[in-house]
Amino acid sequence: MVAVVEPATANSVGGGGNEANMFNGAIPRPPPGNDAACTTTTATGQQATASPPSSMADELCHISCTTFNILAPIYKRLDKQNQSLRESDFRAFWLSRNQMILEWLLMERTSIICLQEFWTGNEELVHMYEDKLCDAGYFTFQLARTNNRGDGLLMAVHKDYFRILNYRELLFNDFGDRVAQLLHVQLTIPSSCSNRKNDTRQELLIVNTHLLFPHNSSLSIARLHQVYKILQYVETYQRENKLGGVPVVLSGDWNGSKRGRVYKFLRSQGFASSYDIAHKYTDSDDDAHRVSYRVQLVAFIVLVNFQ
After folding, report:
1. Neighbouring residues of 213: CB distance < 8 A, sequence distance ≥ 6
2. pTM of the complete model
3. Which helix H or strand E contains 256, and what residues bound it?
4. For residues 205 and 186, is the Cβ–Cβ distance under 8 A?
5. How far apart are CA 160 and CA 295, in angstroms?
6. Are 164 and 39 in contact (CB under 8 A)?
7. Which domains does the chain have, with CATH numbers?
8. Facing residues of 167 across strands?
9. What pLDDT, on the 0 to 100 scale, is given for residue 17?
10. Per-residue pLDDT averaged across 111-129, rounded?
11. What's the number of CA atoms in the CB half-sphere (13 Å) around residue 274?
12. Where is the composition biased (Low complexity) (predicted)?
């Protein structure tokens, strides 16, 4: 599976300032199916299993992934002079912005969607995302942050590309109340889309997370600890399920740049940035400037065991 990336800006639809980052593998993108039954998993930790039929025939295909911090309305300030005034206080504002976000996501039609700062505390917004994504052929999974923070994560995968094998949730239980999602899927693409027959049964692990914001340098260790927990959890899951060498996608808002310790640690563990792969960038300082948009905090999709 060869990974290629198409970046897209999230600012035009009112996200949290991080880039919406996508990778595309060598596999077609059909129109989303509207007749699929959807499976939705919330923070209860239920396991979702489904076997969506493949609708792709003999044409070449590709897999794509979008990660997007959509900025929860409870955090979006509307007035610099009045910091307590939030978008969540005005239904018309947050509803309009999130409708635009959904329209953009459905227009892109990526096979994997990973959202951060998803407003899990608002049932109307949650149902809007679940219903729209379900109608478009996605299976959705949401996970709220611990201690009733009000926001969390949402992951969606399209039925035409994946069969759901397992779903797990990781609670860091730290002072940042951060969480992570792990989704174990199997490709359902036809053999004509692959050079090798066994590629049609290729399994994949997808992780979605939102790391702690680096308010000061002392939090660098805490952020590294969060990433270490994720890798340790993934390694344990691989070992328990005999998944040696399975491709892994770590996606989300890392709240850090290529110059940070988290990114460098992931590189030391064999992960590569999908953005760098697509644009043939390196880890040099010059390229780090370009990829991180003047070293602003950005989202990443990093890959390992992809060929």
Report:
1. 176, 219, 255, 297
2. 0.79
3. strand 248-256
4. no
5. 37
6. yes
7. 11-18+64-304 (3.60.10.10)
8. 183
9. 44
10. 98
11. 33
12. 36-50
